[in-house]
Amino acid sequence: MANSRQAIKRIKVAEKKRLANTTRKSALRTSIKKSKFAIQSNDPQAADLIKSAVKALDKAAAKNVIHKNTASRNKSKLTRAFNTASK
Q: Residue 64, by phi and psi: left (phi above 0), alpha (psi -120 to 50) or beta?
């Protein structure tokens, strides 16, 4: 158990951030899954869903929920899948 007031506060802050990051990461995964499903089913709204997924990836990278290279890799995979499916 933490002894100092500073350590107690850090535990509280870390827990709040962990909960917020879990929520953000879950929403991000849902957005990516929706866009992947739209690409596979040739949905006409796939472009809009990819746009929202890319936005969510950028936000998550900016908030340090995921690494910026992970966000970049996922954006690349989504756009490549969309471009090959639309041909």
A: left
- pLDDT tens sequence across 8-30: 999 999 999 999 999 999 999 99
Please report where in the chains the tokens 């509280």 appear, as a residue: 12
The answer to whether 70 and 84 have CB atoms below 8 angstroms apart is: no
What domains, with CATH codes, occur in the chain? 5-86 (1.20.58.110)
With H, G, I as helix, E, B as strand and everything else as coil, classify residue 15.
Answer: helix
Tokens of 78: 């989504």
With a CB cutoff of 8 Å and minimum separation 6, the contacts of 74 are: 32, 57
Q: Position 54: which residue type?
A: V
Phi-psi region of 21 (alpha: psi -120 to 50; beta: other; left: phi over 0): alpha
CA dihedral (40, 29, 80, 54) in degrees, to 10, reads: 120
